[in-house]
Amino acid sequence: MSEDINELQNRYLEFIGEREWEEFHTPKNLAMAISVEASELVELYQWHDNVSVDRILDDDDLRERSREELADVMIYCLSMANELNIDVEDAIADKLTQNETRFDPDTATAIARDLRHWQR
């Protein structure tokens, strides 16, 4: 059975509480932890060409390591949301709405066309 975002946030709050880590989970420290974990995810691909999804899916080790690093990033993001009293589901929905307005299909297509040009 899969846990929803609120259950995961509460589970992590309990985890840090049992270990008396609350004092260390400041916005600055959490932002730094997010950055470090995101960098560890990037490091998996650092010296490779643009690895295709199919190749990653065929490489059980790379996929699992990616899964673990992504989970670390998400855990710290949920912790930061807890600290700042941010409803993650609302924040994501709001940001998607902003992106839909900011990147209308015509603009997005033009951006993609430019990116393809520079990748050649």
List the helices and strands and how they pair.
Layout: H1 5-18, H2 27-43, H3 53-58, H4 60-83, H5 88-102, H6 105-119
Helix pairs in contact: 1-4, 2-4
Can you summarize this structure?
Helix content is 76%, strand content 0%. It has helices at residues 5-18, 27-43, 53-58, 60-83, 88-102, 105-119. It holds the Pfam family MazG-like.
Which regions have little confidence, pLDDT < 50, spanning 5+ residues?
none
Helix content: over 70%
* Total tally of structural domains: 2
Strand percentage: under 5%
CATH superfamily of the largest domain: MazG-like
What would the average pLDDT be, to the nearest integer?
91
Order of SSEs: HHHHHH
Q: Overall 3D geometry?
A: globular
Tell me the radius of gyration. 18 Å
CATH class assignment of the largest domain? Mainly Alpha
What is CATH's topology name of the largest domain?
Helix Hairpins
Number of strands: 0
| Major pleated sheet | none
Number of helices: 6
Class inferred from helices and paired strands: mainly alpha
Instruction: Give the distance, in angstroms, between the N- and C-terminal Cα atoms.
Output: 45 Å
Subunit arrangement of the protein: single chain
What's the CATH architecture of the largest domain?
A: Orthogonal Bundle
Overall description:
This protein has 120 residues and is mainly α. It contains six helices and no strands. Helix 2 packs antiparallel against helix 4. The N and C termini lie far apart (45 Å). The relative contact order is 0.10.
